[in-house]
Amino acid sequence: MKKLFLMTVAVAALTAGTALAADLKFQPGQDSKFNWKSFDDFKAAHGDLKGETLTIFGPWRGEDEALFTSVLNYFVEATGVNAKYSSSENYEQQIVIDTQAGSPPNVAILPQPGLLANLASKGYLTPLGDDLANWVKTNYGAGDSWVSYGTYKGKDGKEAFYAFPYKADLKSLVWYVPENFEEAGYKVPTTMEDLIKLSDQIVKDGGTPWCIGLGSGGATGWPATDWVEEMMLLMNSPQDYDHWVDNTLKFNDPKVVAAIEEFGKFAKNPKYVAGGVASVASTDFRDSPKGLFTVPPKCYMHKQASFIPSFFPEGTKLGQDVDFFYFPPFASHPELGKPVEGAGTLATITKDSKAARAFIQFLQTPIAQEIWMAQSGFLTPYKAVNTAAYANDTLRKEGEILTTATTFRFDGSDLMPGKIGAGSFWTGMVDFVGGKSAQDSADEIQKTWDSIK
Amino acid sequence: MISQILTAVGAMIFGVAVCAAYFLFSNKLLEIIFPAKEGGDVHRVAVNLRRRGIIRPWLFLGPAVSLLAIYLMYPVVATLILSFYGPDGNQFVGGANYVWAVNDNEFRRSIFNNILWLAVVPAACTFFGLVIAVMTDRIWWGNIAKAVIFMPMAISFVGASVIWKFIYEYRGGTDAQIGLLNAIVQLFGGTPQVWITIPFWNNFFLMIMLIWIQTGFAMVILSAALRGIPEETIEAAVIDGANGWQIFWKIMVPQVWGTIATVWTTITILVLKVFDIVLTMTNGQWDTMVLANLMFNWAFRGFDSGRSAVIALVIMIAVTPIMIWNIRRANAETKGH
């Protein structure tokens, strides 16, 4: 009887094993574009973790969650760790509540260095070590920038490397449908002046150049902050940008006000935006790119980061049905070169454990990147990954911008204090699009910033 | 799943058993300390019985009172202390947080909006609840109507927000409007609006949601009170030649006045705590910020425990007089009977 019982357990364990293996999107060892050696090495090094649990909290929901789970399955397969991923619509607040309540996940993955710096200063994060920081420095494109975005002051006031960058987003992109451009005879602009000329031309031809949507539930307003950051980078030096982010350059400085006004030239021009200015603030950012794909097109261009294809209509082929061009610099500012704005998610340990450490090491393997790259919506500045693994040329083009980048600036609002970058800045931009002047909006944001110093 | 259910069931059985054991044991203890048989000394027995009567309520209420102290009194005191400290709760800043609050535009805006909510929502809920209660008592399909009006009570605030988002939905340009409100506006030849982004008025669009949810509550309570009015008084009024309007205002309303006050104050307290609707609809943008959301934002976006504590205290201070008044009135009523 006991023997039979043991047999059943063994069979159950076996089938459970195969069921898990079947969850893997790409069978290990089969496709040569993947770095399977890194997977096997990781597996050999972490076989002793079976039965441990690991909780991961991240920003990915819906389709992105499925994509992340497909990567996580490889970690589970390699280690036997019982890993659970969860997320929340208001993840920025959720993680604060969880850490303050004393029930944090093992690993938190967040796209906001400002928020992480805050958590680190309260002692909620575990330092990852200088070795890892050096690793990032040498293995990532613009590695110094990435290390600095993961380095914060801890509770003891000492700086340490707390957050490992995993998955990057490229922001300086304008999406368009090549077919629409061909039909109307439009050319991809290479300078901001040309872009404005093109927009005017589209208006003249009876079309609408832009789809802009600022809606995002409780985070409404953030897409506008991307525009303003982009304008800051295109009109001012990277140093000015850094000073703006830490408020040595005041938010109501003429330079910043000019950048906001430049954004207004697009978003507050009723001829430029599909649906009129009134719909800009209320349209959900996830819905707004859909105007590109209607017949006739509601708009010809949509400025949004590299993650947006997740929200394109199903079956849209990147590089064919839709493509992007670099949000171009001003010809009048040749000294600024071609700055790139981006963002990314950073993985931190909020509750230390062996499995959590192993997970961070897993993220360092090329395979942890390539699995997601081969599907969609994933970019990495990691130079050792095989770019052939990217699902299409569009992603490969974006990825190469990142790995070869020299000047890279992180999304400014994510670096500012939470109350500004995820509060007053959003509200200020919503008010600005709603009719307030750039100066008034900027004054209001600076006032809040003064009040938290 | 099964293990979780078993744990839950186990916890329930254990909890009930512990409660029962506590009551049995404390009662037993009381009997041992103050015995009912003291060698025939009737006077002593009487004293013991009286002492038991005095101590027993304290014993029985003890757990509840101490839990209240831990979960209610302690946070209040801790919040008060935090309000005098800086963002991370370590540095004493005196009244700086209060000074900030008085000078902060957003804070003032929130106070103004809260007052707006307080002025409109409890009044509207009570008014509609009363009118509907009176009307539905007269018609044969009154119960069906009541059921329909009561139904929103069963929907969560966030769920209601999803429904109302569709009512206020706006589509730009030449797209067909899918929002109910804009469809109606178009039917009468008006231009569609982005309702929740119109400053000042958008507050009222959010309030309508809470009125929609809470009118059912007011209606049910008031309807029960109306049933309690003796038929004779109304009959007498009818015989004296009073019309419907007079019966309503001069007979019915005065007789259910106590209930109206209860409903009014209950909804007032609810309104002071309004949070979910604003969070899901606008998150305080387009000038719709209210105190609860401001507190949440400062606590979890601004990481400032001091400022959020000040806002929490303001909400508490606003609720307290209403609570006291309510309890006083309830006490007076029981004494009167």
UniProtKB/TrEMBL annotation, chain A:
Name assigned to this protein: Carbohydrate ABC transporter substrate-binding protein
Family recorded in the similarity comment: Belongs to the bacterial solute-binding protein 1 family.
Keywords attached to this entry: Periplasm, Signal, Transport
Signal peptide limits: 1-21
UniProt GO cellular component terms: periplasmic space
Domain of life: Bacteria
Subcellular location: Periplasm
Annotated source species: Rhizobium jaguaris
SUPFAM superfamilies xref list: Periplasmic binding protein-like II (SSF53850)
Keyword Signal found: yes
A Pfam family annotated for this UniProt entry: SBP_bac_1
InterPro entries referenced in this protein's UniProt entry, alphabetically: Bact_solute-bd_prot1, SBP
UniProtKB/TrEMBL annotation, chain B:
Pfam families (alphabetical): BPD_transp_1
Alphabetized PROSITE patterns for the sequence: ABC_TM1
InterPro entries: ABC_transporter_permease, MetI-like, MetI-like_sf
ABC transmembrane type-1 domain residues: 111-328
Transmembrane parts of this sequence: 6-25, 58-85, 115-135, 147-167, 204-226, 247-272, 308-327
Topology in the lipid bilayer: Multi-pass membrane protein
Taxonomic superkingdom: Bacteria
SUPFAM superfamilies membership: MetI-like
Keyword Phosphoprotein: no
Assigned keywords, A-Z: Cell membrane, Membrane, Transmembrane, Transmembrane helix, Transport
GO biological process: transmembrane transport
GO cellular component terms, A-Z: plasma membrane
UniProt subcellular location: Cell membrane
Similarity-based family: Belongs to the binding-protein-dependent transport system permease family.
PANTHER family: ABC TRANSPORTER PERMEASE PROTEIN (PTHR30193), OSMOPROTECTIVE COMPOUNDS UPTAKE PERMEASE PROTEIN GGTC (PTHR30193:SF18)
Protein name, entry field: Sugar ABC transporter permease
Organism of provenance: Rhizobium jaguaris
